[in-house]
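Fold it.
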Amino acid sequence: MKLRLGAFMLPSAGASPAEFERGFAGQNPNFYQRGLADCARLLQQVEALGFDFVAFSEHHFHLEGLEVSNNPVMLGTWAAMQTTRLRIGQMGNVLPARNPLLLAEDLAMLDHFSQGRMCAGFARGYQSRHVMTIGQKMNAVWTAANDPEFAEHDRINRELFNEHYAIIRRAWGDSLFRHRGEHWQLPPDGIVWDHPATRDMAPGMVDANGHLAQVGIAPQTLQDPSSIEVFIPFTMSPATIEWAAVEGITPVIFTPIEAHANASVDLYQRAAQAAGRNLARGEGLGHFREIVVADTDAEAEAIMERGLGYVWTRWHDWFGFNEALRHPGEEGAIPNTPASVRERGYSICGSVDTVARQLEHMIETLDPRLIVPWIAAGPAPIDGLLKSNELLVEKVLPKIGVELERFTPKLRADYDGRGWTH
């Protein structure tokens, strides 16, 4: 069978758990440089191995150092300069707290810098200090499982997210546009712009009274905007899954619990078919997992426990991530341990034979077309991560009859093919 792999790297600071615990790892220049060095080695490796894309996250004020990834588009530009085929994405830009026009421009620039390798990821934002500080002028709010005001915050967050997404799609696709929404007036009324060059070179931007009537971004994307793959990462919400199915967006399902993951797969397929998209089961969406392969189960577990096993239990549990590991009907606290993350299926971890069995079961159960391994760059030993990726692609996947494939971008029809590099 054919499968795509996308590498998710936060990244974290390049520090050991003991170094993180000393404090302020995110501001240590040595740790940041070490983390970049690890990511650079991983980028070049996963491209050579046939991964489809790499994606970075957006988190701000991360003095703790566990998620030093404040600008995924800028990190993506850095990644694009080191690669030639690997697509460059985000998991994801926190849309309710971002200026949508500026983000549309940034992503279009990344598309040109990478010569058509940009893929976009948009998230809703679960960290209050980030969303409500960065997004304060838009009255943005966080939304997370442990939010005591979840219902109201979720409504506001989703309203902002949907409007910002609509603006970005119009900016990519329409040469000129006018938007009137709950949160944005583009352009605002009354802006005088009676420039003769604009009237001659961008007709329609200025009205008969010399006021700015429409706006547009330059450059627009190099890819045909209707063909750009867009991700909604860390998805568990049925409303988000249905919306993604209608919009033709790729949700990346977070939970590894089979009952919940299967329900998400089936919901996406039903919603897509109702919207006129005839998709096979499992088509059009992806699944997050950590995948760590080593010579023995014990060696793989040691790598996992220094990497995601540390970051998840030290950081993510506080935001309710362990709810993604809850079985139907289960009550009480989910054990916040690396072993629990493995035993409940989020971390597929072990020898070649062990990982092959677990991946084969996942494929038989969920019919995945895309798996996004969470690669714990930073705290996990880089040699262990590199060896793990090599064993995954060269030993595990052939053992279970899986071949890797890549998404092929479709560029704009009027592009003549002469890129900036040649």
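The longest strand covers residues 286-293.
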